[in-house]
Every structure is written in structure tokens, then in C-alpha cells.
Amino acid sequence: MSDATLHDHDARLSACPACDAAPLAQRIAAAKGGQGEVILSLPTIHCATCITDVERVLNRHPGVRAARVNLTLRRVAVDAPGLTAEELIPVVESIGYEAHELDPAALSASAADRQGRDILMRIGVSGFAMMNIMILSVAVWSGAEAATRDMFHWISGAIALPTVAFAGRPFFSSAWRGLRHGRLGMDVPISLALILASAISVYETLHSGHHAYFDAAVMLCFFLLIGRYLDYRTRAVARSAAEELTALEVPRAFRVTAAGDEPVPVAELSPGDLIRIRPGARIPADGEIAEGSSEIDRSLLTGESIPVPAGPGLALSAGEVNLTGPLVMRVTAAGRDSSLARLTALVAAAESARGHYTGLADRASRLYSPLVHLLAFCSFLGWYLTTHDLRLAVNVAAAVLIITCPCALGLAVPAVITAASGRLFRRGMLIKDGTALERLAEVDAVVFDKTGTLTMGVPQLVSLDPIPMDARPAALALAQGSGHPLSQALTQALREAGTEPAALTDLREVPGYGIAGTWQGRELRLGRADWMGAEHGDATLSASWLSLGQEAMPIRLEFSDRLRPGAETCVARLLASGRRVMLLSGDAAPVVRDLAQRLGIADWRAGVTPLDKAEALRDLDMQGLHALMVGDGLNDTAALAEAHVSISPASALDAARTASDIVLMGSDLAPVAEALDLARNARRRIKENFAISLGYNVVAVPFAIAGFATPLMAALAMSLSSISVTLNALRLR
Amino acid sequence: MQILGILIPVSLALGGLGLLAFIWALRGRQYEDPKGDSQRILSSEWDDHPKP
């Protein structure tokens, strides 16, 4: 398949807005239609060799019709009807590139992309028109007279009118929408200036007047469209990265049928279905265990860091992770009815409540727009009453509108936001919302979640000392055989101590209990206390037990949660800046106290329910504090939506990432403190930009009102203010 | 001044040509993967057998 047909497919998907809104229908269509498109994310590719390697190996694979790498997005689109991602990933991995499946249904980038190309096209057209008109205008400004000047004006008009009609459409339609709802946005003076400038220029040209504003009208389009494009780019980059994070979790379940297991999209599950859940998989729907025993990691939902033993009859919620043994689950609520989906809906409701925040640009335009109209109208009235010359009065009013027209104001915010979010993006932070940066600048209290946020949510062995030297190789071999997080932590600790695994026989995992094997005729066990007849002891620390045969006493191994890198620096910097720092966790008090003391957080609370968290944030709000919430779990989502601004790590649940304004891509927490400083800087730059554009107006407007404004002046004021605003924004990079 | 009659159409035509090239490039999705395109020219994969 060629590139063109590939994109035709995209266009078809997004040509139907209802399809985008109904993922269920789309997934069913995708499953049946056999579109044969697999999209893989390739996080490690970076060079020309990588592109050719990946494309060559995929094209050589039987059944693949075409493969095309997109290096900008670090993805490969493979056209392979009948092949699944599971078959293609090993092909790419065989030549040493990491590959992950992406859910095409979650990647709706094509519709957004069309919007970006649309703006780019308008920028291009107005740019070319501007260059041509400017050549003619310079001739007029430098003294072309009579018939020559008229001819130049006619040619300019012939270029400018279609250009303004085409390039100005986004402003016209948005101004019209605003007017119909009784709002006077920034687009109304823009549209009025464009229309008035074009109309007057045509009139003046007809009557061989001296001044025509064709160049100003086209230049206005050009500069304002650049502002629009910057604004769009920032949001598109953030959105596509956020979409990619979502798409990495392909929602697929394995339904148990008479003919064996059948993979189905999660959206097609219905209550009563039996599904199989492999160890390590996230549970896709609410339900009840029908068969099998295992351990369940509920940390994302409740904040508890210790896995819960699970057996038949236990209720499971979507979003929990099955750890050790395979389970068969009977679905009780799926799709839109599952607790996860209900929570996402709640979050969406809470988010729309927060959507009332108005950015600095909106506030500025609310003041600016009526003022400009009033000014233009007054100068029209003034000139008409004193000279009774309608043509002159309209001319002056148009000059006022063009000169005050917020070229620089339109660029002021997008240019700063683009520069700032670009810098944050390089530090591993993704801004999903344009106003998030402005809200971040106002933060004076920071609330952290514990598990998965300040800590990695990954256990680490406290000490290797309890294990005798001679038993370590055997312990390593045992631990390697299990996917349980505690076993993996033990494996890592032993590897770092330089241990080589011993040869074990009869290695087997006992789901829900642990792993066993035979070594030198002794049976070794690694797992839960009651499996070895040991006392469980202190329940607040995660612990595992190692038994070296029947006669020896089982050894207790303690694990603690590993601190997220940068957490200490981040908290220290926040405290040093005088902001209030709080720790809210659903976990037990001793663990939370321990962590709070390590980080120096005085204000901590343990055993907090999701509702308590949201309540705590509302309290802060009542005290007049603007709170930043950093959290990753389902138990944080209400609080994330409630907070003034929120951040979640990329490892968070989809619901939490949806609820937060900023996603932390890397595992390092240190950029959070930097982001707060950068946000303050950005806000300062935005205000400076407003001052710059206002400054130009204060100088130029009196000339316009006095009737001295020439098209040359309009062009100069406009370009100078736009360029200085952009340069000022670039200082942030 | 006669020269204007030739130069102005010529300059407009050149500008128009540039615009057409831009539109063609945009329609052909050449702005889709700028990073990849800058790397692809280094590949010798299709030199002897141009891509069909």
C-alpha cells in the first residue's frame, strides 16, 4: 500500500465525527473490516540506519505489504492484513529495536493534523501574497504617482482580496460565532479591521486615492495566523503524546469460550462473560474471580502498597493488576458501567467545572476589544463632526482599527507558551492545556500522593544480610523464576551483589503463595509466611519469606518502596521556595510517616480515602491557596480534578492522566519544582509582551487618530511589535 | 516604464510558482515527518532501484 492510500484510510476515519465519538463502533468495524494496519511505537529509533533496518526487516516478513517509519513520531505503520502486533513485534525486536503496540483507535491524530495543515496552508498563501503586495507597496511608498500608483493598487487589490477572503476565514467564522452568542472576543476587531481595510482600499483605488491598506490587511492575516499555528502546535504535540500513552495500553481481553481463548476488544465484553487474566495483566472490567488463585496489586486504586491474596469469589475492579497466577474472572460490569469508566466520567464533569478559568489572553482581550471599537468609533465621530467629510472619517477610523489591531497581542501568549512548553517537554514534562502553565504560576501549595508518585511503587530489598552466602545463588535462581514484584526486587538485589544463579530443578510457581524449587536435594520456597508456617509479623512492611528446606528456619526478607529519583530535591526546593507541601496517602500510617520524615514533609496524612483527598484540596481552596496536586492512582483522580492544577507521572492510570493538566514523561520528579519557576517566568514574559504591544499602540494610536497614519506606518508598527514579542518569548528557551 | 509591463507579470508568476510548490508539498504530506525525511536522504537503500 502506498502512502496515499494509507492516509486515505485516516481521512475516512476522521471524516465521520460520530465514529471518533463512538470508539465501540469503530473498534468493531476495525475488527471486522480487516483494515490490516498495525501501528507500533519504536521509542529507541533515532537515525537513518534505524529507519532502513526496521523497514527492510518488516517488508521482508511474509504477509507485510508495506511498512513506513515516521521518525518524528517514532512510529511505524505496517500494512499487513491478517497479521497481529504480537507477530510483528518479535520481528522488530529481533534486530534490536524496542517495539510496543499502539491502539489505532486511540490515535485520532489525523483529524487534528488536518487542522494544522489547514492553518499552514493559510499562512503560506498569505505569506506569498504579502511578499508580492509588499514589493508593489514599497514602490508606492517611495513615490509612485498617478497612473502607476493606481495600477499598483489595482494589482495589490487583485492579490489581496482573495487572500484575505481565504486566509481570514478562521477569524471571520470565529468572530461570527462569538457575535451570535453575544460575545466580543479578540476576533471581532480583527475581522472588522480586515473587512474595513479591504473595503476602504478598494474604494480609494476606484477614486485614485493616495493610500491603500491592502498590504496591512494581508500582513495582519499572516502574523495572526502564525500565532494561531503556534497555539495549535503546542496543543497538538501535547495531545498526540498523551494519546500515545493511552494507545500503549491496548484494551484487549481474552474471553474463555468452548473453542478456547479468543482475544476480544474490551469494549465488546458484557456481564456474564468469562475472561482469562494472565499474570502481570491489568484487569479490564469489574468482576469476580471464578477460578484460580493469585495476588492482586491494588496500589493504583487504593494507594496500598502491599498485594492482596486473591481466590475464587473475590471481587475485582478494573484497573487492578493480577500478579502471580492466571485467573478466570466472571465479568459483572464492563465498558461504560465499570467503576473505572464511571470514575473517568466523574472526572470529566469535575474538569468542565474547572474549565471556567480564563487565561491572561482572554482577560486582556475582554478589556481590549471594546476599547478598540470605542476608540475607532470616537475618532470616526470626531472627524465627521469637525470636517463633515465621510470618506476622511471612515479612513481615519480604519487606520485606528488597523494600527491597534492586536497582532502582537495575538502572538504574545502563544509564542511564550510554545517556548515554555518546548523547554518543559525537553525536561520530560508534557503540558496538555494551554492555561495550565498560567495556573502553575499561581501555585502556592503542593499536595503529593505517596505510592507511585513520591515512590516508584516498586519494592526494593532492605538488606541482603539475612540470606547466608552459600544459599544466595539458589535464592537468585528461585527468585528469577517468578514475575512477582518482590521476587524481582530480590533478583535485582542479588544480581547487584554479583551473585550467579545456581542450577535448580523442579522449579514451579504456586499461584497466590510463591515459588518453589529443589536444590541439592532440599526443597526451597520463596513466598508468603503462612506457606512456610512462619509468623507474619509487622504488616506495614512488604515482606517475603525464604525457606531453605524443612529443617532450617524460614528467613524473613523485608522490602521498602523505592523513592522516585528527584523526589528529595523536588520537595526540598518546594519547601525552600516557601510553598506549603502536603503528603496524602491511602497507605498505612507507619509507612507514610517514615517517608514524610525522610523527605522532611511535616504535613502528612495516612489512610486517606479518595473523597478525603478531594476534600483536603477543597479546604486548601477555601483558605485561598492555589494547590498543585501530584498523583497517579484512581484514588487521586477526584483530587487531581479538584486541584487548581495537577500533574501525574506517565506510569499513572489512564483516568489519572486524563484528569491531570501535565504529564511527567520521565521517572524523575525534579522537573516539577523547575516547572513552577519556569511557569512564573513565562507569566512574566506574557505580561511583558502585553506591555510591548500596548507600548506600540500608545505611540501609534495618536498618529492614527490625528489622521497622519499612513499604510507604511501601519506596516512598520505591526511588524516591529510582532517581532519584538516573538523575540521576547524566545528568551525563555 | 514599459519594462513594468513585463517585470510585474514575471514577478507575480514566480511568486505564484512558489505558492504552487508550497501547496503541492503540503498536499503531499511532506511536512508530516520532517525529522525522518532529513535522515532518509542518507539511506542508500533505493539508489540503484528507485522505489516503485
Automatic annotation (TrEMBL), chain B:
UniProt keyword Membrane present: yes
Sequence intervals crossing the membrane: 6-26
InterPro entries reported in the protein's UniProt record: Cyt_oxidase_maturation_cbb3
Transmembrane in keyword set: yes
Pfam family, one: FixS
Region (Disordered): 33-52
Keywords: Membrane, Transmembrane, Transmembrane helix
Protein name: Cbb3-type cytochrome oxidase assembly protein CcoS
Taxonomic source organism: Paracoccus simplex
Classification lineage: Bacteria, Pseudomonadati, Pseudomonadota, Alphaproteobacteria, Rhodobacterales
Gene: ccoS
